[in-house]
Amino acid sequence: MSLIMFWTRAFCVLLVIITVCHSDSPVPAPRYILNLDVAPEKRWNDIVSHWNLTKIHEELAYVMKEEIPEMLVPVVELLASDIDKYIPEPYSSEMVGVAKAMGIKLGDIVTLNLLYDITASCTSIVAEDSNGQIWHGRNLDYTFTSILRNLTLTYDAQINGTTVFTASTFLGFVGVLTGIKPKVFTLSIDERDQGELWENLIELVNALLMGEASLVTLLSRDAMMKANTFESAVKLMSETQIVAPAYYIIGGVQPGEGAVITRDRLTAKDVWRLDSKNKRWFLVETNYDHWLPPPSSDDRR
Ligand SMILES: *[C@@H]1O[C@H](CO)[C@@H](O)[C@H](O)[C@H]1NC(C)=O
Ligand SMILES: *[C@@H]1O[C@H](CO)[C@@H](O)[C@H](O)[C@H]1NC(C)=O
Ligand SMILES: *[C@@H]1O[C@H](CO)[C@@H](O)[C@H](O)[C@H]1NC(C)=O
């Protein structure tokens, strides 16, 4: 089931069209400003204030019950009780703040952030048209779409009134699965399929407890803040240690600027680039390594 269809035009003008698809007609996601000049613990308050929290509590309780293996709960509680140690600033403070604003336990916010980190089963495409214009599109497939559609939003992260990056996300999630840095690069993340969800979650928590590694979606948010060129984004997302395997799909603003980074935990296993001179004018990434045939049960290429 397709939750989000998202196309970006990364050249000069910023154009984002986000709709939430469902059996009934698509509705645009609400759009807000995330003011990065506000202290991390308080910066999500304004966005959260637009939601009916009673309804959110019911919906999130359902996600927690259906999606999260029970054995994980005490481990995440432990992690949450010492969050500064495992999640770097400003993200740990943002998680503390957004949990407070939403009136839910910090452990639940941490769990949801971990869940989104590794369950992005989806398709991303980056392509170059005959004018050298780069296009980047993605969809996102989750199992609990009827709930996620009610949590979907777009925000413009601003410093001193200027947008640093724009992301499409879910309420309570501080990482970036889908984002644009205007005039610099676009980014989407696809899960790299490696067995059962609960096994992946446990490995992820282990990696986090050992330290040194970034959450997959926090590294992409770092890139949104720090990378000022397409190549520096590719470098950062290829070389920084992360907690789980993943695919980073990146589009730029110049001809040739498009890449799929196949990530192992420690480093990139492969960087696959656009090469229109040799007829490679588009790259399609689902949830399998591009140099291998996809399983016949899930061939979305
Ligand atoms: C908020 O959601 C609850 C539960 O779904 C509902 O009963 C209540 O009427 C809603 N409040 C508003 C202001 O819409
Ligand atoms: C999502 O929100 C709509 C509109 O408020 C509501 O009708 C629907 O029941 C909600 N979905 C879930 C799963 O709560
Ligand atoms: C913030 O913006 C204002 C008005 O545009 C400008 O005068 C000021 O120098 C900016 N401050 C910083 C820290 O960039």
Automatic annotation (TrEMBL):
Taking every annotated instance into account, which residue ranges of this chain make up the domain Choloylglycine hydrolase/NAAA C-terminal?
122-291
UniProt key word Acetylation: no
Q: Which domain of life is it from?
A: Eukaryota
* Matches recorded under Gene3D superfamilies: Penicillin V Acylase, Chain A (3.60.60.10)
The Acid ceramidase N-terminal domain extends over 28-86
- Keywords noted in UniProt: Hydrolase, Signal
Reply yes or no: does the keyword Hydrolase apply. yes
> Hey, what's the signal peptide range on this chain?
1-23
- InterPro entries named in the record: Acid_ceramidase_N, CBAH/NAAA_C
Q: What is the name of the protein in this document?
A: N-acylethanolamine-hydrolyzing acid amidase-like
Gene this protein is translated from: LOC102808278
